[in-house]
Amino acid sequence: MTHGQSSSAEAKATVIDGKAVAAEIIAKVAVETGRLIAAGGVAPGLAVVLVGDDAASQVYVGAKGRKATELGFHSVQHTLPLSTSEAEVLAIVGELNRDPAIHGILVQLPLPRHIDTTKVIEAIDPAKDVDGFHPINVGRLAIGERDRALVSCTPAGCLLLIQRVLGDLAGKNALVIGRSNIVGKPMAQLLLQESCTVTVAHSRSRDLPGLARQADIIVAAVGRPEMVRGDWIKPGAVIIDVGMNRIPAPERGQGKTRLVGDVAYAEAAAVASAITPVPGGVGPMTIAMLMANTLTAACRAAGKPEPTF
């Protein structure tokens, strides 16, 4: 469920251990992958396409590829130079769409500026869109057909963490701060389908602290360091911090930085009932859910029952 307590003397909140929950999901994916192969299905196939030399993207892609290989997946990586044309990327996506050994296609974002991201995402077969970004998967989620969709990995992971703490979410007031297509909007859809009363706040929302004080659940995904303060938090609320922000840390030495979320952690932990740390909260769940999505896509392609997570 949740593991450990905050080390702060003032903190009351249970620390939601994303690493531990992600490890449970990965273990289940490994078992179910073995079951799929034994039942005559092929190993789940994940193809990752990386264009250019963005350092952070290279780290993410490497982690995804290693995890897929560990799980016994068929893992493919296309690493393309920055000069690769949009037409060349679309051609590779087309080949992967036609390859029966590939069940999941992930084009690492951001793409270079000369490539139309929307065009590339829409070129991916929705049944292989393990990032959950294709308009067909977004639409299926929006109309409540989650069993036919592939859901964006980060919000899917956030929902599992919330359910580990609260169980049934029906009737809870949920505030999603941020309206991105990758996190905010699908997060709101998932919470709606769990019968929460959902508010989506953004840069033009009035009285954001007031909205936050009414929320039983806050999902912060705005990319602004420590924006959500402790006095915004309703006592006993559950806080999911999706933010990953590097800020200067002169106390560690000249030029040093540290990683913080969108929530002022120590302040919030003194008021909330449970909170995700940064790092070690939402981050590990994203890769775990990517592996779960790839397995789900493989089960659907093979006509086999798909596991639940």
Structural topology:
Blueprint: E1 14-15, H1 18-38, E2 45-51, H2 55-70, E3 74-80, H3 86-98, E4 104-107, H4 117-123, H5 135-142, H6 153-166, E5 173-177, H7 184-193, E6 197-201, H8 208-212, E7 217-220, E8 238-241, E9 245-248, E10 257-260, H9 265-269, E11 274-275, H10 283-302
Parallel strand pairs: 1-11, 2-3, 2-4, 5-6, 5-7, 7-8, 8-11
Antiparallel strand pairs: 9-10
Helix pairs in contact: 1-10, 6-7, 6-10
List keywords for this structure.
single chain, 309 residues, alpha/beta, Rossmann fold, 2 domains, six-stranded parallel sheet, 10 helices, 39% helix, globular
Question: How would you describe this structure to a colleague?
Answer:
With 309 residues, the protein is of the alpha/beta class. It is built from 10 helices and 11 strands. It has helices at residues 18-38, 55-70, 86-98, 117-123, 135-142, 153-166, 184-193, 208-212, 265-269, 283-302; strands at residues 14-15, 45-51, 74-80, 104-107, 173-177, 197-201, 217-220, 238-241, 245-248, 257-260, 274-275. Helix 2 links the parallel strand 2 and strand 3 (74-80). Helix 1 (18-38) runs parallel beside helix 10 and helix 6 packs across helix 10. The longest helix has 21 residues, at 18-38. The model is unreliable at 1-9 (pLDDT under 50).
